[in-house]
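== Item description ==
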Amino acid sequence: MGKQVVFWGPVHGQTGTTSNLMATACMIGLESTIRSLIGHTHGSYSILEPALLKDTLESLGTTFQISGLDALERLARNQRLTSLNVSDYTVPLLYQRLDLLTGSNHPADSIDHQGEWIDIFDQAKRGYDLVMIDVNSGLGQLNTVHMLQQSDMVVINLNQNAVLLDRLQEYQELTDLLKEKNCVFVLGQYNAHSKYTARNIARRYKFVQELYTIPHCVDFMDACNDHSVMEFLLRHRNVSSRHPNAPFIRDVRKLADAILKHTGIHSRLFCEKGA
């Protein structure tokens, strides 16, 4: 049985949740031997597919129909979904390392699909070592709440916005989540020159436990727009410490390692190698 890691943020569009997931999942795919799956529950509104695939919007529409969540949902409703056929409806990004489960062709809140989606990701855990999912922000959708409850680990995506951080201190639902789940925090679009450094945030906001950063990186942002995220990481993952993108690569690698550690996958690989 694999592990399910959910990337979640309290607000939409501010914390870089999707880009954090993309960078981390691709880094894991490039630097580990495990078999991983990346997906999301945003319905038709996600930047995940355009950033990772070179398809046009028209061809992506066809992809949604013949693969991804919509196709697997049909299998689930017909009771033909198994852990063995999940991968048949994914797009391989790195052979035998990383697959993409494309999202639904419908808005996430337009249809009643939470039961099927939970079943799909549960079956995926049986066929992959690691399943990483980008879920809708906030706790307003039942689908998001259920995905968080089913996860083995939650990556909570924040930023350096003091208003957001202050509100989270009073977010009782988040406090309850932290009591139940294996969680780490990450500051997306991080600016090291801000007064609100990771160290100061961790000191001031006691609910923040293990804290990571993903720096703002213009070249990575351009790679997302150019449909070339994987190519960007392939070119940059061995850059020298003096390279301007080195902090981004370093911190993405740190978060990737933390996920493998917290899910126990590092330890499992260590044992399987007989070391």
